[in-house]
Amino acid sequence: MTTETKTNKYGIGGARAKFGDRWAALPKWQRSLAFVAFVIFLYYLPYLGIPGLTWLRTDYIANGNNWAGVLFTCAVYVLIAIGLNVVIGLAGLLDLGYVGFFAVGAYSVALFGSTQSPIVKSLQAQFGLSEEWAVAWAVCIPIALCLAMISGVLLGGPTLRLRGDYLAIVTLGFGEIIRIVVRNVEWSGGPAGIAAIPGPQGKPSADNNIFGLIDAKPWYWLALTTVLLIVFLVRRLENSRVGRAWLAVREDEDAAAVMGVYPFKFKLWAFAIGAALGALSGLLYASRNGFIEPNMFNAQLSILFVAMVVVGGSGNMAGVALGAVLLAYLPERFREFSEWRFLVFGLALVIVMLLRPQGLIPSRRRSRELKDRQEEVAVGV
Questions:
Q1: 3-state secondary structure of 161
Q2: d(C-alpha 12, C-alpha 169), whole Å
Q3: 314 falls within a domain
Q4: Per the domain annotation, does 84 fall within a domain?
Q5: Based on the number of CB atoms within 10 Å of its own CB, is 299 exposed (0-12), middle (13-18) or buried (19 or more)?
Q6: pLDDT, tens digit, for every residue of 33-79?
Q7: Which candidate, 145, 166, 151, places its Cα nearest to that of 96?
Q8: Residue 97 domain-assigned?
Q9: What's the total number of domains in the chain?
């Protein structure tokens, strides 16, 4: 028995591979039934009291937090991680400014949907519209997606010919530029931010009996439905010609170009699609909060987004979803240790990276890549 066989049999990666083989061997109807049961469980989660988490139940609100609200945050972070995984995990592009696209989506619904937006007030005065007029929430969705994709193309056009650390520095600057611009211009509300951001039922008010500010369960169900839809679409895209081109560019850009894959074109596609998903998550986040201001979109949040993908397992959608849930939930779980939670959080990230550098649930392709590199280093030594 070779070393690799032993690793696959007894190691963590081997246990995962064994589970994956057993799952693939099940009849299709059993897999479909298990998936449906899992989805039902996800929708039922707001009513479930997790052992040891009774302070997060929906019938017990403490320190402004509740279980459904935490679940909504987890769902939004999962959507962010899936979008960033397209850029990092599939196309192999290190984007440290993803919070910029998140901000574009949030400010899109705020600037065009809020009656307190300077842009909406200007349109009201120019065309003699009612003071209650604003763009409908459903119309803000395509606006946010289009603006984000345009931003992704504008950022990627001049920068995607860079590689590695140079691209990371440029994207980090993009995220900071977005934050500084919306802080210093009048049409974005400036440092005071924008309130009265609408949801599916319009601006926050007592008439919003479903998508209000108190009960977060409908918001969680909306975010969860969006995540399931995006998972289906991204999975189809990953298995398409575009997805295979992304993997080829990630593994060896020069070899992909020789084989007829135009790297710049497909990297630009990855940036635009990732930007759209980031904007969609930002739109949901801003609509739920009802208020945004520039400091909510800082570089620290962008680093957290990258950590979700790295910790969960770059290239594997289930892995990045798990990383997003953990990094969204753990700070809320240990909120009572506010003075120490970031220290513990940082130490946990270091430990995970030391013990599982490939991530908690890495893709098989990514695991093989890391193993090959370790063998190359061992041979070189």
A1: coil
A2: 34
A3: no
A4: yes
A5: middle
A6: 988 999 999 999 988 765 445 444 444 444 334 788 889 999 999 99
A7: 166
A8: yes
A9: 1
